[in-house]
Amino acid sequence: MENSLSKKLEGLLIKLREKKFKEQLLELTIVRDCVAHPNFYIVKDSWKRDNSWGKSSATFPSGVKHREKASKRKRERYERTKILGLPMVATWISYRDVVMCLIIVSHFCIYLNASMAILMPMWVVFLFRIRPMEFSKTWRINLAGLYRLMSGLGHFTIHSHQMIKK
Amino acid sequence: MGLFETALELLQRRAYPVYKKNIERREPPISHGESTPSGIAVLLIMTGLDHHLSRLKYLRDHASDSLVDPRHTLLQMGNGEFLI
To answer: Which of B4, B35, B42 to substitute to test the interface with A, most A CBs within 10 Å?
Structure first.
C-alpha cells in the first residue's frame, strides 16, 4: 500500500505477455507526473500563410532532463510517449488523450478481475456492459450516457463484502 | 463524489464542449479550456486507480478476516428446517 503506483503495477503485471500492457499503464503514470510535477518547456508555435496553425515543438531548456522513467519511454524527437503517443507537455493533453487513458485503465480493471479475481470499480462495469458494441464506435456519446448514468446513481463506493471474490 | 466521477464530470462538462468546438484541429497547441480539465482528469483517474488498488490490497491482506460474511446461516436454510 505504501508503494507508488508504478511499483504497484510492476508488482501486479509480472508475466511476459503482460509487458506491453504494463508499459502502457506506466506511460499513463508519466502523463500523470507531467501534470503533478510540471516541467518548464520552451514551446515554439508556428503559423502557415493562410493563418492556420503549423506544427508545435517543445524542448527543455539546457541542463534540464526527464526523469529516468520518462526518458526511457519517450519518443526520440517528440515530447510524446512511445506506445500510446500521449503528450508529455501538460498543456498539450486533450480530451482524446484522457479517453484513451480511461480505456486503458478500464481494461486494466477488467484484466485484474479476470486474472486475479479482484472486483473492478462499478464505473468500469457500466462502461463496458451497457453498450459494449457501441463503445468503440461512438465513445463520445457513450461517455455522455455513462456520465448521466453515474450522476443518476449518486455514489460508487463498493461495499466491503463485495470487494473480494472468493 | 469520488475521484473517477469528478474526472468524468470535468471531462464531460468542461473538456468535451471545447473539444467539440475545435474538432478540426487535433494537434497542439490545445485550447486551455480543453487541456486544463483534461490534465486534471488524468491526474484524478490515476490517483483513483492508485487508491482503488491500495484499498483492494488492504481488504485482501489486512481486513479480510474481519469482514462480515454475507452468506449467513439463516439464509441457507433448506426445506423442512426450522428455527428453534
So the answer is: B42
Q: pLDDT tens digits for chain B (84 residues)? A: 688 888 988 888 899 899 988 888 778 888 899 999 999 999 999 999 898 888 777 777 776 666 555 555 555 666 666 655
ipTM surpasses 0.90 = no
Contact between A159 and A122 under an 8 Å Cβ cutoff? The reply is: no
Look at A1 and B52 and tell me if their CB atoms are within 8 Å.
Answer: no
Q: Are A6 and A25 a contacting pair, CB within 8 Å?
A: no
- What residues have CB less than 8 Å from A11, skipping those under 6 apart? A3
- Domain annotation covers residue B81: no
Structural domain including B51 reads 3-66
Is residue B72 situated within a structural domain? no
Q: Is residue B84 part of a domain?
A: no
Closest CA of chain B from A64, distance in Å: 22
Q: How far is A65 from chain B (nearest CA, A)?
A: 21
Residue B21 lies in a domain: yes
